[in-house]
Automatic annotation (TrEMBL):
It comes from Nocardiopsis flavescens. It comes from the Bacteria. Keywords: Membrane, Transmembrane, Transmembrane helix. Residues 141-162 have a biased composition (Gly residues). Residues 136-186 are annotated as: Disordered. This is UPF0716 protein FxsA. The chain crosses the membrane at residues 29-50, 71-90.
Length: 186
């Protein structure tokens, strides 16, 4: 698949120039240049607006101590702005698909579905490799996914003692005691 991507990127300038020549033959050179300049100005305007909105949203979220809202829409707007700013009609068409508000939800749905399928395949491949190496896959222990050996799923042990009661993480618990050292006894 990467070789097809490289070949497509190498062919893109030739296709763009060919499209410019074809459009210039249809509507004339001055109108073609005017259309290209208008698309570049639109791309820069979209980039400025999307960048300032993304920065403002991230700043408000950091001040409030929350996670910023969805990042996919600003990324699509910025990618669309860049594609509009690049001279060419093919890149402008793809950029318009990313920028228009009625096509973005469909693209968001398609991208999230693709990302979920890809992550699922990666997780399955990683678990298979770990099992082949003899390692324990997290969440696949002898008690089943999400099961606690002290009771039901995630239930703390009886009496409020044990590692699950003392630690909220799944990491190792190192028990010990702290004794302050007095440096003034010299």
């Amino acid at each position: 698949m990467p070789i097809l991507t490289v070949l497509a990127l190498m062919a893109l300038p030739f296709v763009e120039v060919w499209l410019m020549i074809v459009v210039g033959g249809w509507i004339g050179v001055p109108w073609t240049l005017a259309a290209l300049v208008a698309l570049m100005v639109l791309g820069v305007a979209v980039l400025r607006r999307a960048g300032t909105k993304a920065f403002r949203d991230a700043d408000e979220a950091m001040r409030a101590g929350t996670q910023p809202p969805g990042l996919l829409d600003p990324l699509m707007l910025m990618a669309g702005g860049v594609l509009l700013a690049v001279p060419g009609f093919l890149t402008a068409a793809v950029g318009l698909l990313l920028v228009l508000p009625f096509t973005r939800p469909l693209l968001r749905w398609a991208f999230t579905g693709w990302a979920q399928r890809r992550m699922s395949r990666m997780r399955d491949r990683m678990e298979a490799e770990l099992l082949a190496q003899g390692a324990r896959v997290p969440g696949q222990g002898p008690f089943g996914p999400g099961q606690n050996p002290f009771g039901g799923a995630g239930a703390p042990p009886r009496g409020g003692e044990g590692p699950a009661a003392r630690s909220s993480s799944d990491g190792r618990l190192i028990q010990g005691r702290f004794e302050p050292v007095d440096d003034d006894k010299d």
